[in-house]
Amino acid sequence: MNSSAQAPPALPPIQVKTIDHVTLVVADLERTRKFYVDLLGMQPTTRPGFNFPGLWFQAGATQIHLILQHDLSGPAGLPMFPPPATAGRVFHFAFEVDDCRAAVEHLKRAGVTVRGGPSLRPDGFVQTWCHDPDGHVVELFSRN
User: Fold this and answer.
1) How far apart are CA 101 and CA 118, in angstroms?
2) Cis? peptide before 84, omega within 30° of 0
């Protein structure tokens, strides 16, 4: 190796602007629609005419894209993480809500198992976790 070779010039970062969407592979579109729309209150939005079934929802500035599991997709859901894995220390995505404590009670009344919380984060936010119908870990948090 030539010690006088110059290193390539450093490239500036790409500068990501925002997260646009999260895509989830699911086993049952209607069951998962009920979770994200009927329970969490996301808004259905227009989905292009792909050649495979799916649904899109709006969650603030971000979209959730569902793909129905098929022979050319990945498997639906994620493996369940056995204890002692802490809910917030596994793959998950988070949504801000107005009142996390009230959301926990709402989840419980809807028959959704709350995986942890509500608990106070070191920054003062309140957080909790649950699973969607396919086992994806969903965090809900609020600023109070």
Assistant:
1) 6
2) yes
pTM of the model: 0.85
Question: 87 with 45: CB under 8 angstroms?
Answer: no
Tokens of 37: 């729309």
Strand partners, 44: 57
Q: How far apart are CA 104 and CA 116, in angstroms?
A: 10
Question: Could you give the domains of the chain?
Answer: 19-70 (3.10.180.10), 78-144 (3.10.180.10)
Q: Which pLDDT does position 9 carry in this prediction?
A: 80
CA distance 93 to 88: 9
Contacts of 144 (CB under 8 A, 6+ apart): 99, 100, 126
pLDDT in tens, 20-46: 999 999 999 999 999 999 999 999 999
Are 117 and 129 spatial neighbours (Cβ–Cβ below 8 Å)? yes
Contacts of 141 (CB under 8 A, 6+ apart): 94, 95, 96, 97, 100, 121, 125, 126, 127, 128
Structure confidence at residue 88 (pLDDT): 74
Helix (H, G, I), strand (E, B) or coil at 97: coil
